[in-house]
Amino acid sequence: MFSLDQRLREDSYVIGRFPLSLLLLSRDANYPWCILVPERENTYELYHLSEEDQQQLIGESSRLAEVMDSVFDADKMNIATLGNVVPQLHLHHIARYKDDPAWPAPIWGAVPARAYEPEPLKSRVEKLMNALAGEDFTPLNDASELVSSAAPRPKIDC
């Protein structure tokens, strides 16, 4: 049975679900940063997925990246699977800007994670949910509910 890794649960908000993957929003407010987690147990690498699931994940990732690029007017979309700290397969989608705190380097370790303030969190989640609305995406939390759980968390390393 699928279970979301504890570190991912602690470092993100569950936003919604695609047919294959959970959609998470990182608690680090420094960047628009989403994470897709395929709901398959014991999956640590892309090649652990069936060919059908691999294609589904690529489609979900492409849709999310396109939405994030449009909604957040990114200079560049970074998409990565690392798994050095959290082995469960997860794909980071990070909207990057030429003036962000880590540009042009990777975000990991560049600056301390910054917790969301309630209104920016609500706004970011609502923008994502509105842009993703459709038959292949199901919101799982209301933006207002997430604001009530916006407690600061430790530095994020995935």
For the structure shown, list the relevant keywords.
six-stranded antiparallel β-sheet, alpha+beta, HIT family, subunit A
Q: What structural category arises from helix and sheet content?
A: alpha+beta
What CATH architecture do you see?
Answer: 2-Layer Sandwich
Task: Give the DSSP E fraction (strand runs of 2 or more residues).
Answer: 15-25%
Question: What is the third-level CATH name, the topology?
Answer: HIT family, subunit A
The whole-number mean of residue pLDDT values reads: 91
Domain HIT: 1-103
Protein name: HIT domain-containing protein
Pfam families: HIT
InterPro entries: HIT-like, HIT-like_sf, HIT_Hint
Structure description:
The chain is α+β, with helices and mostly antiparallel strands and 158 residues long. The protein has a single domain (6-137), classed as HIT-like (HIT family, subunit A). It contains 4 helices and 6 strands, in the order H-E-E-E-H-E-E-H-E-H. The protein has a 6-stranded antiparallel sheet. A hairpin with a 6-residue loop joins strand 2 and strand 3. The longest helix has 22 residues, at 51-72. It starts with 5 loop residues before the first helix and ends in an 11-residue tail after the last helix. It holds the Pfam family HIT. This is HIT domain-containing protein. It comes from Gilvimarinus algae. Residues 1-103 form the HIT domain.
Question: How do the helices and strands line up, and which of them pair or pack?
Answer:
Elements (H helix, E strand, L loop, with lengths): L5 H6 E6 L3 E6 L6 E6 L12 H22 L3 E5 L10 E6 L21 H15 L5 E2 L3 H5 L11
Antiparallel strand pairs: 1-2, 1-6, 2-3, 3-5, 4-5
Helix pairs in contact: 2-3
